[in-house]
Design a protein that fits this description.
Shape: globular
Helix content: 40-55%
Oligomer: single chain
Largest sheet: 5 strands, mixed
Strand content: 5-15%
Structural class: alpha+beta
Length: 143
């Protein structure tokens, strides 16, 4: 009987944590839009070993299967268009870039990196679930 009670408490606590994480992501991701540029990209801290002329597509462990499939397709489309692209599962931000950010910017970066969509990095900015047209617009006419 004590085991069942303990199991029930752990289950309720787990549901509470899951509920909080979902709402925390929604609140944080909603705060991204006011700082996005005209193409929907936001400024990000510098990424270690990132070439400025290359588009980086990051599919973290939080990405859904649909997001991963979309990322693979985007990488193929970018490559077909002659745009340098790298797919990866993680990035390392340079500490100097993170230290220069205020708390709201750090929260936006965290929400984006922990979200369910792939993150596309272009010219020091990033967007989740970007399309080929979004990336081409962000790259500009000299891509």
């Amino acid at each position: 009987m004590k085991f069942l009670r303990l199991l029930l408490i752990v289950g309720v606590a787990g549901c509470g944590v899951q509920y909080w994480h979902q709402h925390h992501f929604v609140d944080a991701s909603a705060s991204v839009m006011p700082v996005a540029d005209e193409n929907g990209f936001i400024r990000m801290p510098p990424v270690e070993d990132q070439s400025r002329d290359t588009v980086y597509i990051v599919t973290t462990r939080h990405c859904s299967r649909l997001a991963v499939r979309s990322a693979v397709q985007l990488a193929q489309d970018l490559s077909d268009a002659g745009i340098a692209v790298v797919r990866t599962h993680s990035v390392t931000f340079l500490p100097v870039g993170l230290l220069a950010m205020d708390d709201s910017e750090v929260n936006r970066v965290t929400a984006m990196m922990n979200g369910p969509s792939a993150i596309i990095f272009v010219h020091g900015k990033a967007k989740t679930a970007a399309t080929l047209e979004d990336v081409e617009a962000e790259l500009g006419p000299a891509n």
